[in-house]
Write a structure and sequence with these properties.
six-stranded mixed beta sheet, Immunoglobulin-like, ten-stranded mixed beta sheet, single chain, 4 domains, 593 residues, 7 helices
């Protein structure tokens, strides 16, 4: 056989192979597809023969979907994507009918994988004036930008009046609103374009409007409550274009000299989203003398930092003469001002002025933070019932693991309310009881035996408050969801100071007393006894320390006989999930395991 003949045979074989590929990959599938189109159309005609009352009148269009033809048994067999066992789309495939020149005309659209009918199945293209995502400030008037054009691939340019606008924007309420633009072409193919309009409220302008020319809240303000890092704060006022806030209550009792170091611990318990809102600022730290505690001016500011304390001038400005102020605490709390190298000032609600104390004493700390004035308010009106909710707030979903939530949130369990101190890498959640344990007015109390010195906290010693907390709390609460854990008892030479313990002792317990330096340990005692016990221990004190009705940490260095209430700290099992509630004081989480 000659080379020329061989070449011709190769070409013929190649052409045959290509032809076979074309047949199997293109021609045969299209033949099958068109047969299926015909089957669907014939089924639709049978449908409208039976349901003739559904046939359209005038220029109207009537549609029957493939799934309806199956459900009504007008299609006996499934139609498949060629060469597969996958059925054609039953929801996106349809037959439309309309009257043309006095006769009904059928339009079949079948979607089978990559194969689609050529009949017009796309709605008109709607173009809008303005952006599809818009932001409007609360209280401003929303002006509808409107429709720029409507063009259909079959009908061409359409009238703007053919577009129906649905949805309203209420600029008096914060939220997200959808405005829909709907159009149909002559074959009743539908297009919906949505414009999302978000009504926002910026924190800075909101505070300036609420406080007027003075830029700070005064007296018993009832419109300055705000959630920050899922914890309740009060707005002090404007700080330039930003906003200064203060924790609603003392977080912990700390010696004055340890506060800046303690702030590092505190910062770790804020959410990452909340940290992004913090603006470093200069806080007043001027010194005072007894004769200047009524000042309303600050004459010295420190370096920029993330956290500070409230100063006496701010308290005085917010406290009209003879009236109360939201800035006056229920407890004895540190303020930013110092007297000298050894003493600093505190305030308390029933005190007429600031009072000086040794910087080595432990008193309440309410962090002051400045946050970005551009921060958006998601909801709320600033009242205690509906505090401002910021963009950092994360809602809870049912069946969320408790260990996915945040410090400061409230939980109801065992007949009492708890607050989250922190979540741990092992999946447990550390919590503190919101108040001392009681059955009605009958508080669980422990009387420290007289004559015993050096009462270091010890849960293994029967005459010790540590043993009493761990072994008797279950008489008042359910502890089934709690797990045993290791605690470290911090022991100090004399009066405790933050991170100045001389040694620690480890024990394994289910329940323990609070550590005065930890989150939410500073609530004043509610019992009629001396205080609730603490885990912090002094080698020099005769008795274990406790927190009294003013939130003050007390130590006994003389022979006496204290009674302690019990405010336990516990760890929730990692399997505990949330099945209700919002995590707030008024709506605490409900949990289950």
């Amino acid at each position: 056989m000659s080379d020329a003949l061989k070449d011709k045979m190769k070409i013929a074989i190649t052409a045959a192979i290509i032809g076979l590929f074309i047949w199997f990959l293109v021609v045969s599938p299209m033949i099958t597809f068109h047969r299926n189109e015909k089957k669907v159309e014939e089924a639709a005609k049978r449908y409208f023969d039976l349901y003739s009352n559904e046939l359209p009148t005038g220029e109207r269009v009537k549609t029957v979907s493939l799934i309806t033809l199956y459900d009504k048994a007008f299609m006996k067999e499934d139609v498949y994507i060629p060469y597969t066992k996958k059925t054609c789309s039953v929801n996106d495939s349809w037959v439309k009918v309309r009257k043309v020149n006095g006769e009904y005309k059928y339009y079949t659209y079948l979607k089978c994988g990559v194969l689609n009918s050529t009949v017009d199945h796309k709605g008109p293209e709607i173009k809008l004036y303005g952006d599809e995502e818009m932001t409007v400030n609360r209280g401003e008037k929303y002006k509808e930008p409107g429709v720029k054009s409507v063009v259909d691939n079959s009908d061409g340019k359409m009238s703007l009046e053919s577009v129906t606008v649905k949805g309203k924007v209420d600029t008096s309420e914060i939220g997200t609103y959808d405005v829909q633009y709907v159009a149909f072409d002559s074959l009743s193919n539908k297009t919906v374009v949505t414009r999302t309009v978000t009504v926002v409220q910026k924190l800075g302008p909101t505070v300036k409007k609420a406080t007027g020319n003075v830029d700070y809240y005064v007296g018993d303000a009832d419109n300055n409550y705000i959630y920050f890092s899922n914890m309740l704060f009060r707005i002090i006022g404007s700080n330039g274009n930003n906003v200064k806030i203060i924790a609603d209550k003392d977080i912990a009792n700390v010696n004055y000299e340890g506060i800046d170091e303690w702030f590092k611990y505190y910062e770790k318990h804020l959410t990452d989203e909340a940290k992004k809102l913090i603006v470093k600022s200069k806080y007043c730290d001027m010194g005072l003398s007894k004769g200047t505690t009524d000042t309303t001016q600050c004459n010295h500011y420190g370096t920029e930092k993330n956290f500070g304390l409230i100063s006496i001038d701010e308290i005085n400005k917010a406290t009209p003469k003879g009236e109360n102020s939201f800035l006056m605490p229920e407890t004895v709390s540190w303020i930013a001002n110092i007297k000298n190298a050894e003493e600093a000032y505190t305030v308390i609600v029933f005190s007429e002025s600031a009072t000086e104390y040794s910087k080595k004493h432990n008193y309440g700390v309410r962090p002051v933070i400045t946050i970005d004035g551009e921060t958006l308010i998601k909801s709320g009106d600033g009242t205690e019932e509906k505090p401002y909710i910021l963009t950092d707030y994360k809602k809870v979903k049912k069946n969320t693991e408790l260990n996915k939530r945040y410090p400061g949130e409230y939980i109801t369990y065992g007949g009492v309310t708890w607050r989250i101190i922190e979540t741990n890498s092992d999946g447990t959640t550390k919590v503190i009881c919101d108040e001392e344990l009681a059955d009605g007015d009958n508080y669980l109390t422990f009387a420290d035996p007289e004559g015993l010195k050096n009462h270091i906290y010890n849960p293994e010693k029967k005459d010790n408050v540590g043993y009493f907390v761990n072994n008797h709390s279950s008489e008042y609460i359910d502890t089934g969801y709690f797990v045993t854990h290791e605690i470290k008892v911090p022991i100090y030479e004399k009066e405790p100071m933050y991170k100045k313990e001389v040694e620690t002792k480890k024990y394994t317990v289910k329940l323990s007393a609070p550590n005065m330096y930890e989150m939410f340990s500073a609530s004043p005692a509610k019992t009629f006894v001396e205080s609730y016990g603490l885990i912090n221990s002094s080698k020099d004190a005769i008795e274990n320390p406790g927190v009294d009705n003013d939130g003050v940490v007390l130590y006994s260095y003389e022979s006496t006989n204290y009674q302690y209430g019990v405010r336990p700290v516990a760890y929730f099992d990692k399997r505990v999930v949330i099945n209700g509630g919002k995590g707030t004081e008024n709506s605490p989480f409900k949990v289950e395991k």
